[in-house]
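Late entry, written up from scratch paper. The run itself happened at the end of the previous shift, but nothing got recorded in the book at the time, so transcribing now.
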Amino acid sequence: MNKEEQLCEAAKSGDITLLNSLINSGADVTFFDNNGLTPLMHAAKHGHAAAAKSLLVAGAPWNAVSPSNMSAGDFAMEEGHQDAFDVLLNAGIQAELILGTIARKESTKGSKSGDYLDDRVSFSEDKLMDAESKAVMMAWEKPLMEAHAKAICSQGGDVLNIGFGMGLVDTAIQQYSPTTHTIIEAHPDVYDRMIRDGWDKKENVKILFGRWQDVLPQLKSYNGIFFDTYGEYYDDMREFHDHLPQLLKPGGIYSFFNGLCGGNPFFHVVYCQLVSLELQNLGYSTQLIQLPVKDCLGEETWEGVKHKYWQLDVYCLPVCQSMEDSD
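Output as recorded:
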């Protein structure tokens, strides 16, 4: 048995003395065994929080995944090992704050916005697709969008939505008869369809064509804001959050499509916590409302779609409000 295999065994048993000795002797903490598991995954799976901490300090990657797409945090979650889970969650949040190794490198759904805006998109009854057969928006999101609309319209007044897509959230917003309803849409095909469908004729609707970054000077302040752009990185949303103090009225509600790392349960938890922390630093509290979505997502839902951008059983709907206003 080589050093790395011994390291896996020490991680399984929680033998800290042996584990640290092997680490100090140069054992590779990034090693994958014959089952595709790392020492950190073994420590997490067996609930050895101290072993997990030692491995992380030694450079074990918190976000490595097994052949079944399970990370160490997923194993801790699955087995109900809270202490090990907390160690891994904190490590993930700290790493992402510093490095941004997962969702900041990729869009929640698609590719970088410049490419997307140059592509043709296609509409069908249940989905909006980009040129690479990746879903921009799908009909299964309708109940989620209705819940988002209810949240951001709870204060009445003026409402802003960034990203029209299939119009699911905007149709829901209209049911609440906001004083004004501003929609930002950057894709020319989607914009043309909006005009054909008469959205520009609605009495309380104002459409701004362009990227939100480009129309910022035309915006005022709003009682409710929803953010759901396609083809942008996580950093783009973080940049938008920096503008919230100017865009969201006191007491207003902000929400966003929470598709961050929607293919992995533990990574999703990390990013829910991360975005909550970043909004907290801007003065906003974030409540995550859990909505079951498993029944919406049979295999037939994804027929013809290149990438399943959501694979979790529960959707965490964020409701954000100024901490001063929510006291």
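The longest strand covers residues 248-256.
(Scratch paper discarded after transcription.)
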